Amino acid sequence: MLPPALAGVALTVGVAVAMTATDQARFCGGCHSMSEAALTHKHSVHAELACNECHAPHNLAAKIPFKAKAGTHDILATITSNVPDLIHPNGDTKEVTQANCVRCHQATISTVNMQIKEYCTDCHRHVPHTPKIPVAQRSAADA
């Protein structure tokens, strides 16, 4: 049996490795249902970010149960072939995504009338999951 201190270190390292691995587009895009999202992310202005920079809380105490719940939901949806054609954030995920938009884009958000729409994705619904569209052909919602 491992001494408690060594077991604690092993557990901490294991959790850190698992959290890092499951944050990456390669992991997220491994499921057929998310392959298009991973591909469009790869070609977006947010390509340098890990999926969970936007899709999970940044506070580790909140992130672990959030990812466990979301992961369980996604696995069950895949196993039961109950994956919607279009996947949109809702509930907790929408709140987390909004908080992360605000965290990174505070300077921009301070110049926008956020009273018109509650969430950034209400207008920017395809960020970053849309193929590159030439600037001349974009609508504001594709930005």
Automatic annotation (TrEMBL):
Tell me which Pfam families the record gives: Cytochrom_NNT
Single GO cellular component annotation?
plasma membrane
Q: Give the record's family classification.
A: Belongs to the NapC/NirT/NrfH family.
Tell me where in this chain the NapC/NirT cytochrome c N-terminal domain is found.
5-105
Q: Which organism is it from?
A: Desulfomicrobium orale DSM 12838
GO biological process, alphabetically ordered: anaerobic respiration
For this UniProt record, give its keywords in alphabetical order, as a comma-separated list: Cell membrane, Electron transport, Heme, Iron, Membrane, Metal-binding, Transmembrane, Transmembrane helix, Transport
Record's subcellular location: Cell membrane
Q: What is its main location?
A: membrane
- Where along the sequence do coiled-coil regions lie? none
One GO MF annotation is: electron transfer activity
- Its recorded name reads 7-cyano-7-deazaguanine reductase
